[in-house]
Amino acid sequence: MIRIAAVGDVHMDRDVLGRFRPALEELPDRADVLLLAGDLTRHGTEEEARCVATEFGNLGVPVVAVLGNHDHHRDEVPQVIRALETAGIVVLEGTNLVLDCGGVRLGVAGAKGFGGGFAGRCASEFGEPEMKAFIRTTQAIADQLGEALREMDCDVRVALTHYAPVPDTLAGEPLEIYPFLGSYLLGQAIDSAPTELALHGHAHAGSERGSTPGGVRVRNVAHPVIKQAYSVFHLYPPYAGTGARVSAAGETGSS
Amino acid sequence: MNGRAQGDTEPPDDYLEAAIQRLLTEHNAIAEQGLTVTRRDHSLVVCGEVESAQRREEILRLVLERFPNLPVTVDIGLIRTEAPSTVEELR
Ligand SMILES: [Fe+2]
Ligand SMILES: [Fe+2]
């Protein structure tokens, strides 16, 4: 069994320091890893990232994060990442990491994601350059996420994004803003590999549970949604991706 | 905690809702995207949850400062940060 703790949208600044720490101190007894689903800071400043490092660093379990839109606001992404890494927090940006959890290889692939909307109600790569750039951005991130998921040599695959890969977990948000909350392209990337669980944040007024068209369970772990310091998920064998490296065509191969 | 300001009461219109929504997101001291602004008869209600009591106070202060003649109710909670009492078993 693998125990995954996760939270997103903690929007740290000095005023939040210490609020999560008591619950985080219990993590080594409760989880094998902590995943942070983006919007770690309030404006994406280096100073706020140092607050994240203080609050979420040195926990006794590995901490793996993706960034969110707030973490990009000040255009200080390299400084933000450096501050997080100083505290041992691994930041995934279309990349992956395989952790050994008591003999089970847990693979985490992560990317911020971006918007565009969901099948049947989505933006297209057409028209003005700004519109095309919008969808190309999402497509490029989704391509990286899919590749990062497929290429891992591991037993359990978890996808970590900030933006939502499905509309299910947006229930509660105004329909009009769905295109700014996520994209089906992320869901498609997740379905291109035998993914066990997909975690995201960003939709503060959304809901907790959903699944991709391919049947992968999706959880919105935005802090205002889960209303606790973090959620914990227990994953049991048989795992969907045991020992499989997956080709770009989506077929499983032996490794 | 609720804050309420009464002035000469012009009914809030759609543009005002948009102005408050953008103020809450774009003002440097707030940067909250997850709050909702809804119309209730002749007042606006700002709802949602934030990460600290200071942020709640700041939102209240700023909305009252920017829209002194508008009846606005701020109904914002603090997000709990307890360790979870249950685990989700995914089988
Ligand atoms: Fe957020
Ligand atoms: Fe966000």
* Stretches with pLDDT under 50, minimum 5 residues of chain A: 248-255
CATH class term of the domain at 16-78 in chain B? Alpha Beta
Quaternary structure of the protein: heterodimer
Helix share, percent of chain B: 25-40%
| Named CATH architecture of the domain at 16-78 in chain B | 2-Layer Sandwich
Strand order of the largest sheet of chain B: 1-4-3-2
Helix-strand pattern of chain B: EHEEHEE
Return the structural class of chain A: alpha/beta
Number of DSSP E strands of chain B: 5
The fraction of residues in strands of chain B falls at 25-35%
What fold name stands as the CATH topology of chain A? Purple Acid Phosphatase, chain A, domain 2
Mean pLDDT of chain B: 85
In brief:
The complex is a heterodimer of chains A (255) and B (91). Chain A is of the alpha/beta class.
Structural write-up:
The complex is a heterodimer of chains A (255) and B (91). With 255 residues, chain A is of the alpha/beta class. Chain A has a single domain (2-242), classed as 4-Layer Sandwich (Purple Acid Phosphatase, chain A, domain 2). In chain A, 28% of the residues lie in helices and 25% in strands. Chain A has helices at residues 21-24, 27-30, 46-56, 69-72, 77-86, 129-150, 178-181, 184-191, 223-226, and strands spanning 2-7, 33-37, 63-66, 89-91, 95-101, 104-111, 117-118, 121-122, 156-161, 197-200, 209-211, 217-220, 231-235, 244-246, 252-254. Chain A has a six-stranded mixed β-sheet. In chain A, strands 4-3-2-1-13 form a five-stranded mixed β-sheet. In chain A, strand 14 and strand 15 form a beta hairpin. In chain A, helix 3 packs parallel to helix 5 and helix 6 runs parallel beside helix 8 (184-191). Chain B is an alpha+beta fold and 91 residues long. Chain B is elongated and about 55 Å long. Chain B has a domain at 16-78: Histidine-containing Protein, Chain: A (2-Layer Sandwich), CATH 3.30.1340.30. Residues 1-7 of chain B have low confidence and may be disordered. The A-B interface holds A 3, 9-13, 15-16, 19-20, 22-23, 26, 30, 42-43, 70, 73, 196-197, 204-205, 217, 219, 223-224, 226-236 and B 28, 31, 33-34, 36, 48-49, 51-52, 54-55, 79-85, 87-91. The structure holds fe (ii) ion (2 copies).
